[in-house]
Every structure is written in C-alpha cells, then in structure tokens.
Design a protein that fits this description.
Oligomer: single chain
Distance between the termini: 27 Å
Structural class: alpha/beta
Number of strands: 6
Strand order of the largest sheet: 3-2-1-4-5-6
Length: 173
C-alpha cells in the first residue's frame, strides 16, 4: 500500500529549531504545518519523534511546537542518531529543516532500512527554493512519496464520521 496507515506510521520532525527562523524560507508556515501534523498524530495515536541538530549552536525546537523531548544529534541523518526509534513502525511521515540536508539524509537512511517514507512538502523548507526542490526531487527519485499535510492527515484518518475526523478537520481548516 502506498498510503499512510495509522497502525504503521510514525511522524518524524527533523530539526525545526530557532536558529533556522531567520535563515530559511517560510519558517512560520513550516512550523504551523508541523504543529498540525503533531496535533494530528496525537489525536490518532501515532508516535512522534522530534530531533534537534546541535542544539547548543542552533537552539531548541520552535516553541510553537510545544514541549517535546528531542533526540539530540550532530549527524545530519536523524535515523543515525543515538536514541532514534520508530517504535516498530514501517512508515515514516517526515517533515522539517533543511529539505536538502537533514530531511533528505534521514529519508534516504529510512528508505535503505526498508521504511516507506512520505515527505510533507508543505512542512519542509531550506534556505533557498532551489535547495528545497532538489531535496524533494532527490527523495522522490529514491522512492519517497511526496505528499502534503492535509493529504497525510486524511490518509491516516481513513474515514469521516468520527470524533477524530472532526478534530482533524478542525486542524486543516
């Protein structure tokens, strides 16, 4: 199956940190979309893994994302960081910063491990649009599925008519 399933999926939030706020394009939009994904994951009972790249230099996770217990790392790929786990899940919905570096290397390592990777294109960014495009293209060419926040949330939801549906619908409106 090439759609996200709640029993199989984990959300991976890569390095949405304060130092990137003035440095990357559309930081506020990426933070808002990442928050939607995190809230949706909470509603649907999906595990969330948050990483921070060298927090001494790049700061902590954006406060808009709430209290998180991040996996700290110095390697670019979150999947190579000590303590990184998907809780046995074989799908990863990936978002974060920067698309062409840490997000891309994380996606490629997960693909190499046999994990089905979905990348939320409206919840990733880089310093330049060109680098974001290169990152998304490279991941897609390697087998990742490029998606959007709304598409991913509704795939994970699966059907309308429940209280969860109403909560997720409020997130995307």
């Amino acid at each position: 199956m090439r759609t996200l399933e709640r029993e199989r999926a984990a959300l991976v939030v890569v390095d949405v940190q304060e130092a990137f706020r003035p440095a990357v394009q559309d930081f506020d939009e990426v933070v808002e979309n990442t928050r939607r994904l995190m809230d949706g994951a909470r509603i649907l009972g999906i595990p969330v893994v948050v990483t921070e790249q060298y927090p001494k230099g790049l700061g902590r996770t954006a406060p808009e994302l709430g209290d998180v217990v991040p996996v700290e790392k110095t390697c670019f790929s979150a999947a190579r960081a000590e303590g990184f786990e998907l809780d046995g899940r074989d799908q990863a919905l990936v978002c974060g910063i920067e698309t062409h570096v840490c997000v891309s290397q994380t996606a490629h390592d997960l693909l190499d491990r046999g994990v089905e990777v979905h990348v939320a294109s409206d919840a990733v960014t880089s310093r330049t649009a060109a680098n974001k495009g290169v990152g998304l293209h490279k991941m897609e060419q390697s087998g990742a599925i490029v998606t959007s926040v709304e598409t991913a949330l509704f795939e994970l939801l699966g059907a309308a008519g429940s209280e969860e549906f109403k909560q997720v619908q409020r997130l995307v409106k």
